[in-house]
Design brief:
CATH architecture: Alpha-Beta Complex
Structural class: mainly beta
CATH topology: hypothetical protein yedk fold
Oligomer: single chain
Strand content: 25-35%
Number of helices: 4
Number of domains: 1
CATH superfamily: SOS response associated peptidase-like
Amino acid sequence: MCGRFTLASDPAAVQAAFPGVEGAEQLAARYNVAPTQAVAVIRNNGLYRIEMLQWGLIPSWAKDPAIGSRLINARAETLAEKPSFRTAFRRRRCLILADGFYEWRTDPTARRKTPIYIRLKSGQPFAFAGLWEEWRTPNGEALPTCTIVTTTPNELLETVHNRMPVILPHAAHDRWLAQGEQDTAGLAELLRPFPAEEMEAVPVSTRVNDPRHDAAELLNPV
């Protein structure tokens, strides 16, 4: 799964990683993004601009918005089948901007979990494959939400966790952001583990366990 991530890069670096995108200047450094918080997203609405959506997808048909806290991730293998995700997979996809993420590795000898920070060796920002929805509040206001698509781990991540977020290469961005209803079989081909040789992972402080901690020191290796 993916339960925490970062987007701490300078806005200029985000702009360079996503040429032509609007709104990069609005971004503030985030070192511990947690579920239900606002995340930076580019939706497939043809605008190619950064918007802030709530992390945790609430399907349009949901009666209770609390379901969003359970839908922060969506398994790539079942997107086309699950009622919560299948329509969004066909019609409402997005890029969720990040520059790293955390997973927790179980240490059986110490009976504890060690947080591991994973990023690209290049240090550049990247995009998770995401889905989005708009849920209507009781007073009729639109609440846009999103979820991160996950897949099987690559060789680096399999020592840490049995899932990893789908990181889309730049060449796949336009296809993922295509407007209108799309063939899900073709889109599913994009949902693969990112190459392990382009990534690195380092143990970090357990301070990241508390989402109230959101500072650069969380990225320091321990």
